[in-house]
Amino acid sequence: MSFSKKGETKLTKGNKTQKIMLGTFLLICVIAIVLWKKHPAKEEVTYKESTASKGVLESGVSQRGSIDIGTIEQSFELDMSALQRVNASGSGSSSSSGSKSQGGMSSGGMGSGGMGAGGMDFGGFGSSGGSSGGGFGGMDLFGQSRNLGGNNTFTKSDDSSSLTVEEVCVSVGQEIKKGDVLYVLEEESVQKLKETLESNVEKAKADLEMLYADQKVSRQNAQNTYDVSVAYGSYMQTEYNETVAELQDAVNEANDTLTQAKETLAEYEALLAETQTAYDKAVQSLKNCEWSRDNTAKESEVYFYVYYFQLTQQAESIESQLKQKKEQLESRVESAKSTVSRAQKSLNQAKRRLDQGKLEAQETLQLRQLAYNTAQETLDVTLAYLDIDAKEQEDTYADAQEKWDSFSAYVDGCNVCSQYDGTVTSVELGVGDTVGTNSLLVTLNSRADVTMTVTIDERDMNGIEVGTKANVILTAFSDEVFEAYVTEISEAQSDRSGNVTYEVTATLQGELEKLYQSMTGEITFITGKTEEEVLYVPKRAVTSNGEKQTVKVKTADGLVVEREVVTGFTDGVNVEIKEGLAEGEVVLTESRGKTK
């Protein structure tokens, strides 16, 4: 029981201490409030002097709005297809010494069966003489020469090459610069990918060296083909004639098809040109009718207003019909162009097949009389294809090396860095997440794209179009003018009362680093200028109280008086003074601030 009483005694003392501390705190708060009311913060007023001047003043349409700072999404741009490699182990088919199934001449001379009817095989030579196989097949010179370089296949690496986030180095709201570290990757995952890419380089290099060895044999076979091509005569004249005639028929048919397609296209284009002319006139007529309607008073000129209203409806109907017809013809023209393109491609293919077929048939026909220059051409083509194959494998090796170099440049050690300046608005990855091609890393607010969008009544849209200059004055920087240009105008929108408005977007220029999302201000679209010089002062010097507008004027003896004025045009920075001031008078722009 005594233990319980001691504890109760200590608790009671603690409550008293807390009450004393609370009372002291409340007393301090009361004293602070009394002192604050007795000595409130003073408001400091400063004035900036400006002189009423004359000049040509731009006129404009003003509207208040807020700025929107554009966003940039940075993705992981490293091409993870770098994990694919070319395996050239299938190369070297041309170096084998076995005979082709098509038959033909042996490299050692004509076999006991004589020259087979299957035609000469320029891709390789058997060791046991020619076969006596059947049917005329022509010479597969170009196709076989392509086989000399081998057959490349593609394989993918395993999943061990994926990258994993170990540390996130940025947070939402953070200002970052280009080069700042966004994420740190797990060293083990980075090392695995490095090993994979290095292995790809080594394998591509080995494949290239193997191809060089195979092509040494292929080039020797090509030389043997050249030697044979100058030694043998031709096949039957009838087969040659039929082969060439068939290929020529295909060319003629393709040419006829192309001619018909071009005629059809020309007809559609002529109709489209006529329709376009009629449509342009209809559009202009509609604009004229709309202008007449909009500039005719409904109340005082009812007859003319109804007349122009009906004319406008008729013009709209004609314009709509012509527009629909024009779009239909445009579609037909595009379709006809596609048909011409396909017909042209078919003709080109037929011509290529004719040229190739003539060469093959001519060589078959005149094999024994083949001139040296024809044999030389065959050799050059074969060697050219070998060069192409070698170039492809060299490109594969260079690509593997480039991917390795790109990885080394993109991932700085284990760090993935920012490519832009901006404010972080979203961090897309977390610790343990996997990074792959096009993985979204962060989203930034970029001051490289700062816009202001406001709603403009259609009556004020005259002179506002894409490219129109505007002046922007933000509340936070009232003494600074930001230049802007209209970059987008929305489709017309109307409310229940029939009022039509447009959403107009302007992009700000200049030094925008100090701006923040949703800062408010006034934008003035420059739609014209005064025809002659007018008197003007800074717009901020004018104070509006209802319909009354005043300025503070500093007199010659230093006194400050308030004077009523009548304003006119404004460009958002300056405002025209129609009455109330004289040129050279000094007006004051007032700024207020708090002082302790």
Describe the structure.
The strands form five sheets. The protein has a six-stranded antiparallel beta barrel. Strands 1, 20, 21, 22 and 25 form a five-stranded antiparallel β-sheet that branches. It has helices at residues 2-38, 141-146, 187-229, 237-294, 302-365, 372-410; strands at 42-51, 53-55, 58-75, 84-87, 153-156, 163-168, 175-176, 181-185, 411-412, 415-417, 422-427, 434-435, 440-457, 469-474, 477-489, 493-494, 500-508, 520-529, 534-538, 543-545, 548-554, 560-564, 566-570, 574-579, 586-595. The chain is of the alpha+beta class. Helix 4 (237-294) packs antiparallel against helix 5. Residues 1-15 and 84-160 have low confidence and may be disordered.
Task: Sum up the structure in keywords.
596 residues, alpha+beta, six-stranded antiparallel beta barrel, five-stranded antiparallel β-sheet, 6 helices, 25 strands, 41% helix, flat
